[in-house]
Structure prediction request, 627 residues.
Amino acid sequence: MYLMKKNDVKKIAKALEEKYTLYGPYVDEAFGQCFFDKVTADNVDLNASIPTNPPKHVVFPHLETIMQYKYDKTTKKADIAMVFDDTPKALFGLRSCDLTGLQCIDRFFLGQEFVDEVYRHHRSRMFIVANTCVVPFKQCFCVCTDSGPAAQEGYDLNLTNLGDSYLLEVGSEKGKAFIESFGFAKATEEHLKQKQKLVEKSITMFEDIATESKAWVSRVMNRVTTGFIKEEVWEYIGNQCIECGACSYVCPSCTCFNINDANTIAGNTERVRTWDSCSYEGYSRMAGGHNPRKPIEDRRNKRFFCKLSYSQSKKYLRPGCVGCGRCAWVCPGDIGLPNVVTYIRREIHE
Amino acid sequence: MSEQKIVTVPEIATIEEIKDEIVDVKTFYLRFDNKEIDGNFKFKSGQFIMCTVFGAGEFAVSLPPSPENDRFHITVRRIGKVTNALHDLQVGDKVGIRGPFGNGFPFEEIKGKNVIYVAGGIGLIPLRSSIVHVLQHRNEFGRILLLYGSRSPQDLMYQYMLDEWQKIEGFETFITVDNGTPEWKGNVGIITTLFDKVEIPVENTVAFVCGPPVMFNAVIKELMQRGIKDDMIISTLERHMKCGVGKCQHCAIGRTLVCTDGPVYTYRQIKTLGEQI
Prediction:
C-alpha cells in the first residue's frame, strides 16, 4: 500500500508505456465521450466518466485472425498455422465493473474443459491497474450485482482517489515488483479507512440514482433460472427489441463469436473470428434454413438467461451481469438489463 | 484407450473415395495424412467432427462409421456454402478435421435392452454409427428394430446397407416412403403409419430418434403413447456450430451447449431445455 501525489499517476502510466501497449480511458475531443482504447501516458484520463465501451476488445478483438492456411490445389498441400497475439498489454484505470467482466471472460475462456488458446495468449502478459469509483455514474448498478464500486481482486495495482492524493494498493507479485522502484511513501491504515469511507459514501450515492428495481437482480435470477416467467413478459420484451445487437457490443461479459474463412488476394485464407450477438436472426439459423430460435423473444430471453441464471453463473462463478449499465444506455428499445429486471419484478408482484 | 482429440489446428485428411448416395448427398471416405493419427482416431458413436473445406470454411458433421472396424467416412448433404464446396472436391483432395466432439450415444447403459431406431430422411446418417455398432454386438441386446421413412424411394439413404440389413436375422427393418412410385412395393405413408403395423416392444426398450423436427415431434408422440418413457427416448440434435468446444455459444439450447453437453440428449432432457428442436 502506497500513497502518491496526483500527478504521479502519469509517472506510472509512462513507466507502463515503456514495457506494455497502454490501454486506458480517454476523452475523445470530437465526440466529447470517453472511450477505452489505446492511449498514451499524456491523454489517459482517470477522472473521465465510465468509458462507452468495455475493455473486452483488448483481449477479444472485434475482428481477429486466429488461423491462417494456404492450400495449393495442384500439389494438394495445406499449410496451417495458428495466429497468436501475445504482445504485453496494460489496462490502465479499469473500473471495477469492467475488471469483473474481464474475470467473467477469463473463467469462461480458460476455466472450462477446453482452454481458448488465442485468448490465453492475449491474456498471458497483461498488467492491470484498476480505479475505484468514488462517485457512481448515472446508469451504474454494480452494487446490485456485487461487482463494485471498488475492485476486490484480479488487479495488479488499484488506485483510489482520496481527494488530494491517490491510495495505491498492490494486488499481485507482478504489481509489487513494478511499483517498488518508484519509492512512493507507504500508506497507513488511516488511509485505508479513508478509502473505505469513500467507498461507503459512493454506495449511498447509488441509492439516489439507482431505482429500487435494480436491487431485485438476485430475486429475478431465481425466476429466470427456474423458468417461472410468463411468456407474455418475454414477448413484451421481445417486441421492443430491434435486433441491433448493441447490448452485446457494449457488454463487458458478452463473448459470443462467429468464425469465417476469408480468402485473401495473396492466395491464402484467414480464419477470422468476429463478435456476434444472440439477438441476430442468423445466429442460430442452420445451413438448410431451419432456425430453432426464429421468434425474437426466444432470442431475447436467451440473452437475459445468459446474464441472469444460475446455470450460466456456474461458468462465470458469479452473475453474468456486472452492473455497468451500458446496455440500458445504448438500447433504443428500452430493454436494457435494469428495465428487464423491472418488468420481471412487476410480474412477480402482480 | 487413450483418446486423441484434435482441438485447435485441423488435421489434414485425404479424400480416398467418393460415393454418391442420393440426390445431393455424398459419402466421403477419408484417411488422415498423419500416420500417427490414422487408425488411432478414436471416437464414440454419436460424436461429431468439425470438417474444414479449405478456402470455404468449417462445418459440423456427424460421424456415421462405427467406432470399431469401420472405414472412416462422413456423409454430407449439399446444402450451404461449405458443403457445396465439399461436394465439388475430387478424390485426392484434402480436408481438415477437428474432433471428435460431443458426448456420444450411451452404449453401456442400453446393453441388454430392446433397441428401436426411428429415422427420417438423412436422419439415418447419425444413427448409422450406432446401428452398425449394436449389430456388431448383436448378442448383447434384445430385439433390434429399424423404422425408416423418407420422402420417396429415391430419397432412401444407404440403399445398399438397407438391403444388407434386411437380410440380417434378428434385425427387424421396416421402411416407408411418403410418396411411392410404381416400382415401389413397400409401405407408403409417413413414418407414424409404421407404428400401427409393427409390434413395438415397450418394456425394457430404448428408442433412438433422428429426423426433421416435424417427424421428430410426431414420432415422440407415438412412442410416448405406447408407454416408452421419456428418458428412454434418445436423440441427437443439430445446431449451428462454429467452434465445437463450447466457446462460440451458437449451439446453446437452454442451459446446455450441443457441442459439449450434446449432441445426444434424452427426450426428458430436451423437454426441460425449453427451446424448439
In short: The first strand of chain B starts at residue 6 and ends at 20. Chain B has two domains: 6-101, 114-236. Residues 52 and 58 of chain B are 4 Å apart (CA to CA). Chain B has a mean pLDDT of 90.
